[in-house]
Write a structure and sequence with these properties.
Layout lengths: L2 H8 L4 E5 L7 H8 L11 E4 L2 E8 L2 E10 L4 E7 L3 H6 L1 H4 L14 H9 L12 H9 L5 H15 L1 E2 L12 E2 L3 H5 L3 H6 L4 H12 L1 H6 L5 H9 L6 H11 L13 H10 L6 H8 L6 H11 L19
Antiparallel strand pairs: 1-5, 2-3, 3-4, 4-5, 6-7
Helix pairs in contact: 5-16, 6-10, 6-13, 12-13, 14-15
Protein name: DNA-3-methyladenine glycosylase family protein
Keywords: DNA damage, DNA repair
Organism: Streptomyces desertarenae
Length: about 325
């Protein structure tokens, strides 16, 4: 995008929407529910500032910046948006905040889960409707530490994304919208290397962006069909598909298997046992069939986790090789 286009996007007019959720919704609920979209504390596409959540996103209509603040006294959420995709982002506000999610179908089967369900009545599963923006960072997180993945996401967005639209005097510093598919496809191999992304992950991302339209269609599919669509791309397995569809589709049953930490957390929280694996986790979550992801979100909200161990995958900075 040219400098002139950047300037025009920055100065784009503001659009506003106020929405009254049909359930109590406060600032803590807003931050807790949307936090799953943040890729590290310095994510260029996500910030918390001035009592609001700021989100830079690439919609089908173009880039947009969304500022969302909850006002529990008024029973409303107020969203402001800038950029070519502003109206699209505002139209999707209720879904983003969990309006399509129905926790009434959830039946706790363990005391700890029941207590978490009671303590977090505002917990909702978000639905962005945007696949690539969750798929690409999930691929970056494959088989590396979160710090390495966050560093790669941050570097690639700052170098190849575009400044988020919005007023310079209000927009948190350094916010960027992720690159469009064609830009991802044109990133040279040495830049992936400098970002610490190995050939396997970069190749997976390139295959995904080459089929961007097909990938985005998964946001409108049921869980099984969406998983099939995503995993048809070599390099995208069940872990990556689940991590993506939890965010894009609000998939209540998209339980993450193959994760380094989640099985141990679930097993420890429900039984006190250490060293749990996927099979044991799925056995314990079986009573929550159809709602297994929600069950894990509630368990994570309790903070009941086993003592941390050293990462299984040693940190290797391939940019220095």
């Amino acid at each position: 995008m040219s400098t002139t286009a950047h300037s025009a996007a920055r100065q784009s007019p503001r659009s506003v929407r106020r929405w009254a959720p049909p359930w109590p919704y406060g600032p803590d609920d807003l931050r807790r529910n949307l936090r799953v979209l943040q890729r590290g504390p310095h994510d260029p596409a996500y910030r918390v500032a001035g009592g609001a959540v700021w989100r830079a996103t690439r919609t089908p209509c173009g880039p947009a910046t969304l500022r969302i603040a909850a006002d529990p006294a008024a029973g409303e959420v107020t969203a402001e948006a800038w950029g070519p995709g502003a109206q699209w982002a505002l139209d999707g506000l209720p879904a983003l905040l969990g309006d399509g999610d129905d926790p009434s179908e959830f039946v706790p089967r363990h005391r700890l889960v029941a207590e978490a369900h009671r303590r977090h009545p505002g917990l909702r599963l978000v639905r962005t409707g945007l696949v690539l923006e969750s798929l690409i960072p999930s691929v970056l997180e494959q088989k590396v530490t979160t710090d390495e993945a966050y560093r790669a996401w941050r570097r690639l967005l700052r170098r190849y994304g575009e400044p988020a639209p919005g007023p310079a005097d209000r927009l948190p510093e350094g916010m960027h919208v992720m690159p469009e598919p064609r830009t991802w496809a044109l990133i040279p191999s040495w830049e992936w290397h400098r970002a610490g992304v190995d050939n396997k992950r970069s190749s997976t991302i390139l295959r995904a962006v080459a089929r961007a339209r097909r990938m985005e269609e998964a946001a409108g599919m049921d869980l099984a069909a969406a998983v099939t669509r995503l995993t048809a791309i070599p390099g995208i397995g069940p872990w990556t598909a689940a991590e993506t569809l939890q965010r894009t589709n609000g998939a209540a049953d998209a339980v993450t298997v193959g994760d380094l930490h989640l099985p141990g957390i679930v097993v420890y929280a429900l039984t006190g046992e250490r060293g749990g694996d996927d099979a044991r986790m799925l056995e314990l979550l079986a009573p929550y069939a159809g709602q297994r992801h929600r069950a894990t979100r509630l368990l994570l909200a309790t903070g009941r986790t086993p003592p941390r161990r050293a990462p299984r995958f040693p940190r290797v900075d391939i940019a220095r090789l």
